Amino acid sequence: MELARIAADTGGRGSRLPSRPADAAIEAVLFDCDGVLVDSESLSASILSAMLDERGVTLGFAAALDLLRGRKVATWVAELFAGSALAGSQETFTRDYRARVSTAYRHELQAEPHAQELLDGMDVPYSIVSNAPEWKIRDGLTCARLEAGSAHQLVSAYDLQSWKPEPTVYLHAAAGLGVAAERCLAVEDSDAGVRAAHAAGMRVIHYTRDDAVPTHPLAVARSRHHAQTQLIIASLATQGAAV
Protein backbone atom coordinates (compact mmCIF):
# COMPACT_ATOMS: atom_id res chain seq x y z
CA MET A 1 0.00 0.00 0.00
CA GLU A 2 1.36 3.44 -0.89
CA LEU A 3 2.11 5.86 1.93
CA ALA A 4 -0.24 8.45 0.44
CA ARG A 5 -3.08 5.92 0.59
CA ILE A 6 -2.18 5.08 4.19
CA ALA A 7 -2.36 8.74 5.15
CA ALA A 8 -5.73 9.13 3.45
CA ASP A 9 -7.16 5.96 4.95
CA THR A 10 -6.14 6.94 8.49
CA GLY A 11 -7.10 10.59 8.46
CA GLY A 12 -3.61 11.97 7.91
CA ARG A 13 -4.62 15.40 6.66
CA GLY A 14 -1.68 17.26 5.19
CA SER A 15 0.89 14.52 5.83
CA ARG A 16 4.19 15.10 4.08
CA LEU A 17 5.05 11.85 2.36
CA PRO A 18 8.01 10.88 0.18
CA SER A 19 7.55 11.45 -3.52
CA ARG A 20 10.75 9.81 -4.72
CA PRO A 21 10.95 6.11 -5.68
CA ALA A 22 11.00 3.61 -2.82
CA ASP A 23 14.36 2.92 -1.22
CA ALA A 24 15.56 0.08 1.02
CA ALA A 25 12.97 -1.34 3.40
CA ILE A 26 13.53 -0.54 7.06
CA GLU A 27 14.67 -3.32 9.40
CA ALA A 28 14.31 -1.69 12.83
CA VAL A 29 12.36 1.08 14.54
CA LEU A 30 13.65 3.48 17.18
CA PHE A 31 11.03 5.18 19.32
CA ASP A 32 11.48 8.33 21.33
CA CYS A 33 9.75 7.98 24.70
CA ASP A 34 8.46 11.33 26.00
CA GLY A 35 5.77 12.65 23.70
CA VAL A 36 5.77 9.54 21.51
CA LEU A 37 5.06 6.60 23.82
CA VAL A 38 4.06 8.44 26.99
CA ASP A 39 2.20 11.75 27.27
CA SER A 40 4.79 13.22 29.61
CA GLU A 41 5.81 16.45 27.92
CA SER A 42 2.43 18.14 28.28
CA LEU A 43 2.41 17.12 31.94
CA SER A 44 5.93 18.48 32.41
CA ALA A 45 5.03 21.74 30.67
CA SER A 46 2.08 22.28 33.00
CA ILE A 47 4.34 21.73 36.02
CA LEU A 48 7.02 24.07 34.67
CA SER A 49 4.49 26.83 33.93
CA ALA A 50 3.06 26.52 37.47
CA MET A 51 6.53 26.58 39.07
CA LEU A 52 7.45 29.75 37.21
CA ASP A 53 4.15 31.39 38.11
CA GLU A 54 4.90 30.72 41.78
CA ARG A 55 8.19 32.58 41.26
CA GLY A 56 6.61 35.56 39.56
CA VAL A 57 7.61 34.58 36.04
CA THR A 58 4.87 34.16 33.45
CA LEU A 59 5.36 31.43 30.86
CA GLY A 60 2.25 29.91 29.35
CA PHE A 61 1.73 26.23 28.66
CA ALA A 62 2.53 26.42 24.94
CA ALA A 63 5.76 28.34 25.52
CA ALA A 64 6.79 25.97 28.31
CA LEU A 65 6.17 22.99 26.03
CA ASP A 66 8.25 24.54 23.25
CA LEU A 67 11.05 25.22 25.72
CA LEU A 68 11.37 21.70 27.12
CA ARG A 69 10.14 19.38 24.34
CA GLY A 70 12.86 16.89 23.45
CA ARG A 71 15.61 18.87 25.15
CA LYS A 72 18.14 18.30 27.91
CA VAL A 73 16.78 19.65 31.21
CA ALA A 74 20.03 21.40 32.15
CA THR A 75 20.01 23.28 28.84
CA TRP A 76 16.54 24.77 29.08
CA VAL A 77 16.90 25.49 32.81
CA ALA A 78 20.06 27.48 32.05
CA GLU A 79 18.16 29.39 29.36
CA LEU A 80 15.39 30.21 31.85
CA PHE A 81 17.81 31.57 34.40
CA ALA A 82 19.69 33.56 31.78
CA GLY A 83 16.50 35.14 30.44
CA SER A 84 14.57 35.89 33.62
CA ALA A 85 15.04 37.09 37.18
CA LEU A 86 14.62 33.72 38.86
CA ALA A 87 15.85 33.56 42.46
CA GLY A 88 17.85 30.65 43.82
CA SER A 89 20.11 28.25 42.01
CA GLN A 90 19.60 26.24 38.85
CA GLU A 91 20.39 23.08 40.82
CA THR A 92 17.62 23.72 43.36
CA PHE A 93 15.13 24.59 40.64
CA THR A 94 16.01 21.40 38.73
CA ARG A 95 15.61 19.22 41.84
CA ASP A 96 12.22 20.79 42.58
CA TYR A 97 11.12 20.32 38.97
CA ARG A 98 12.19 16.67 38.84
CA ALA A 99 10.54 15.92 42.18
CA ARG A 100 7.24 17.43 41.05
CA VAL A 101 7.37 15.62 37.73
CA SER A 102 8.09 12.32 39.47
CA THR A 103 5.08 12.79 41.76
CA ALA A 104 2.84 13.75 38.85
CA TYR A 105 3.98 10.68 36.91
CA ARG A 106 2.63 8.41 39.62
CA HIS A 107 -0.78 10.03 39.66
CA GLU A 108 -1.39 11.45 36.20
CA LEU A 109 0.90 10.05 33.52
CA GLN A 110 -0.76 8.19 30.66
CA ALA A 111 0.49 6.40 27.60
CA GLU A 112 -0.04 8.03 24.24
CA PRO A 113 -3.28 6.68 22.73
CA HIS A 114 -2.81 3.24 21.14
CA ALA A 115 0.89 3.15 22.08
CA GLN A 116 0.55 -0.33 23.58
CA GLU A 117 -1.11 -1.67 20.44
CA LEU A 118 1.70 -0.13 18.41
CA LEU A 119 4.41 -1.88 20.43
CA ASP A 120 2.51 -5.16 20.57
CA GLY A 121 2.13 -5.13 16.79
CA MET A 122 5.80 -4.55 15.96
CA ASP A 123 7.10 -7.04 13.38
CA VAL A 124 10.66 -5.67 13.36
CA PRO A 125 13.05 -5.14 16.29
CA TYR A 126 12.75 -1.87 18.16
CA SER A 127 14.53 0.16 20.82
CA ILE A 128 13.61 3.23 22.84
CA VAL A 129 15.93 6.21 22.42
CA SER A 130 15.63 9.20 24.74
CA ASN A 131 17.31 12.36 25.98
CA ALA A 132 16.12 11.40 29.47
CA PRO A 133 18.06 9.35 32.05
CA GLU A 134 17.34 5.61 31.84
CA TRP A 135 15.62 5.62 35.25
CA LYS A 136 13.20 8.26 33.96
CA ILE A 137 12.47 6.24 30.81
CA ARG A 138 11.66 3.17 32.93
CA ASP A 139 9.68 5.28 35.41
CA GLY A 140 7.61 6.78 32.62
CA LEU A 141 6.82 3.45 31.01
CA THR A 142 5.87 1.93 34.38
CA CYS A 143 3.72 4.84 35.53
CA ALA A 144 1.91 4.93 32.18
CA ARG A 145 1.36 1.17 32.49
CA LEU A 146 3.03 0.68 29.14
CA GLU A 147 4.60 -2.73 28.55
CA ALA A 148 7.70 -2.43 26.40
CA GLY A 149 9.42 -5.63 27.45
CA SER A 150 10.13 -6.58 23.84
CA ALA A 151 12.30 -3.48 23.34
CA HIS A 152 15.86 -4.52 22.52
CA GLN A 153 17.35 -1.74 24.62
CA LEU A 154 16.70 1.60 26.28
CA VAL A 155 19.25 4.12 25.02
CA SER A 156 19.75 7.18 27.23
CA ALA A 157 21.63 10.32 26.22
CA TYR A 158 22.85 10.59 29.82
CA ASP A 159 24.69 7.29 29.54
CA LEU A 160 26.42 8.47 26.36
CA GLN A 161 26.77 12.11 27.50
CA SER A 162 25.52 13.21 24.11
CA TRP A 163 22.04 14.68 23.69
CA LYS A 164 19.75 15.13 20.70
CA PRO A 165 20.06 16.89 18.25
CA GLU A 166 23.46 15.18 18.21
CA PRO A 167 23.05 11.82 16.40
CA THR A 168 25.05 9.76 18.94
CA VAL A 169 22.09 8.12 20.68
CA TYR A 170 20.60 7.00 17.38
CA LEU A 171 23.87 5.68 16.01
CA HIS A 172 24.42 3.78 19.27
CA ALA A 173 20.91 2.31 19.12
CA ALA A 174 21.36 1.17 15.50
CA ALA A 175 24.69 -0.45 16.36
CA GLY A 176 23.09 -2.23 19.31
CA LEU A 177 20.49 -3.71 16.99
CA GLY A 178 23.09 -4.61 14.39
CA VAL A 179 21.17 -2.67 11.73
CA ALA A 180 22.63 -0.02 9.42
CA ALA A 181 21.38 3.45 10.25
CA GLU A 182 19.87 3.93 6.81
CA ARG A 183 17.70 0.87 7.42
CA CYS A 184 16.36 2.26 10.71
CA LEU A 185 13.24 4.34 11.16
CA ALA A 186 12.84 6.80 14.04
CA VAL A 187 9.54 8.02 15.48
CA GLU A 188 9.96 11.47 17.01
CA ASP A 189 7.84 14.38 18.19
CA SER A 190 10.49 17.07 18.72
CA ASP A 191 12.68 19.15 16.44
CA ALA A 192 15.80 18.03 18.30
CA GLY A 193 14.83 14.38 17.94
CA VAL A 194 13.97 14.59 14.25
CA ARG A 195 17.25 16.37 13.53
CA ALA A 196 19.23 13.81 15.54
CA ALA A 197 17.78 10.83 13.70
CA HIS A 198 18.09 12.52 10.32
CA ALA A 199 21.74 13.38 11.05
CA ALA A 200 22.31 9.70 11.81
CA GLY A 201 21.07 8.88 8.29
CA MET A 202 17.68 7.52 9.34
CA ARG A 203 14.20 8.13 8.03
CA VAL A 204 11.87 9.78 10.53
CA ILE A 205 8.14 9.79 11.21
CA HIS A 206 7.07 13.04 12.83
CA TYR A 207 4.46 12.10 15.43
CA THR A 208 2.19 14.79 16.86
CA ARG A 209 -1.47 14.94 17.76
CA ASP A 210 -1.44 18.74 17.61
CA ASP A 211 -2.75 20.01 14.28
CA ALA A 212 -1.19 23.41 15.04
CA VAL A 213 2.31 21.90 14.86
CA PRO A 214 3.60 21.90 11.26
CA THR A 215 5.07 18.73 9.82
CA HIS A 216 8.83 18.71 10.29
CA PRO A 217 10.58 19.29 6.94
CA LEU A 218 13.09 16.49 7.59
CA ALA A 219 10.41 13.85 8.20
CA VAL A 220 9.39 11.37 5.51
CA ALA A 221 5.87 11.14 6.96
CA ARG A 222 3.65 12.58 9.64
CA SER A 223 1.48 10.61 12.03
CA ARG A 224 -1.33 12.06 14.12
CA HIS A 225 -2.18 8.81 15.91
CA HIS A 226 -0.49 5.48 16.48
CA ALA A 227 -2.85 3.46 14.31
CA GLN A 228 -1.45 5.57 11.49
CA THR A 229 2.10 5.16 12.83
CA GLN A 230 1.68 1.39 12.72
CA LEU A 231 0.52 1.44 9.11
CA ILE A 232 3.37 3.70 7.98
CA ILE A 233 5.91 1.44 9.71
CA ALA A 234 4.40 -1.63 8.06
CA SER A 235 4.63 0.01 4.64
CA LEU A 236 8.22 1.14 5.13
CA ALA A 237 9.17 -2.33 6.36
CA THR A 238 7.94 -3.89 3.12
CA GLN A 239 8.42 -1.32 0.37
CA GLY A 240 10.86 1.18 1.82
CA ALA A 241 10.92 4.88 1.11
CA ALA A 242 13.47 7.51 0.17
CA VAL A 243 15.41 9.21 2.98
Commentary on this structure:
The longest helix is centred in the middle third of the chain and has 19 residues. With 243 residues, the chain is α/β, with parallel strands linked by helices. The protein is globular. The protein contains eleven helices and six strands.
User: What characteristic shape results from the CA principal axes?
Assistant: globular
Based on CA atoms alone, the radius of gyration comes out at: 18 Å
Could you give a short account of the major beta sheet?
Answer: 6 strands, parallel
Count of DSSP strands? 6
| Widest sheet, order of strands | 3-2-1-4-5-6
Content of β-strand: 5-15%
Percentage of residues in helical conformation: 40-55%
Order of helices and strands: HEHHHHHEHEHHEHEEH
Helix- and strand-based class? alpha/beta
Task: Average the pLDDT over all residues and give the rounded result.
Answer: 88
Task: Supply the number of helical segments.
Answer: 11
Low-confidence segments, given as residue ranges, are 1-22
Between the first and last Cα atoms, what is the distance in angstroms?
A: 18 Å
